[in-house]
Design goal:
The chain is an alpha+beta fold. About 30% of the residues lie in helices and about 20% in strands. The chain has a 4-stranded mixed beta sheet. The longest helix has 11 residues.
Length: about 90
């Protein structure tokens, strides 16, 4: 799988995430941990399904070219997948 690398525009990301009720706190936490080198962002879990509660965490996956671990900031958990790992996880998120 070939992936073109480009920066994610924070304003576009903010607009796309508005419908998921992250709140300003959740969005700021995500901005702190989202790597500049991410080539894609996937929101999954209860926030993406729309069945979250007020105290639900925010599950986010960043598509990156170099493998790295997960990080947590406030109530945001950010996992990092390479394009190959994302393809292997298809249907599981």
């Amino acid at each position: 799988m070939e992936v073109a690398q480009s920066e994610i525009d924070p304003e576009v990301l903010a607009h796309q995430l508005e419908r998921f009720d992250l709140g300003s706190d959740g969005f700021e936490a995500l901005r702190k941990v989202l790597p500049a080198a991410a080539v894609g962002v996937v929101l999954y879990g209860s926030r993406a399904r729309g069945d979250h509660s007020d105290d639900s965490d925010v599950d986010v996956l960043a598509v990156v070219l170099d493998a790295r671990g997960s990080v947590t900031e406030r109530h945001v958990t950010l996992s990092h997948y390479t394009p190959g790992q994302l393809a292997d996880a298809s249907g599981t998120l």
